[in-house]
Amino acid sequence: MTRLPMPAEDKLTDAQRRAIQAVTAGKRAGVRGPFPALLRSPELCERAAVLGELMRFGTSLPPRLSEMAILITAYNWRAQYEWYAHAPLAQKGGLAEDVIEAIRLGKRPTGMKPDETVLYDICTELHDTKRVSDATYKKTVETFGENGVVEILGICGYYTLVSMVLNTAQVALPEGEKNPFPE
Length: 183
Fold this sequence. Notes:
Oligomer: single chain
Low-confidence stretches: none
Mean pLDDT: 96
Helix content: 55-70%
CATH topology of the largest domain: AhpD-like
């Protein structure tokens, strides 16, 4: 059972209603994932929705790479719902199934494209060590530019917030879906 489910319609405050409007005004189809929980802080919910739309739809990275960064973050936090929501989007965006599966298992994927290798290295190094080495930074700037580096950090940071909310709220997978990270 989700700890912080969607508040009942008749219990919503005006601020929560505005936050719901902000979440659904963009490219999202509804209020799900972390947003029912985030409604407990309507301003945070509203601002998270705006940042999330930018990180998901508005970076210079193609979906194959932005979704890969999201999956690496989901794995790092073992955020089941995040994985459930984004693994199909990564595949649709062009990320190879074997790369997705290796990330799910916590293994370094083989056969990555050169830009995927660079993205994998910065994301995993950042999550694992909480730092980025000079060598990894240099390679990432050479591949994506400084703007791309900052966008990658933004994606990892935003989806860390999302993963923390999902895990704390214990957002359930849809009926019939299996935990992608069994112990």
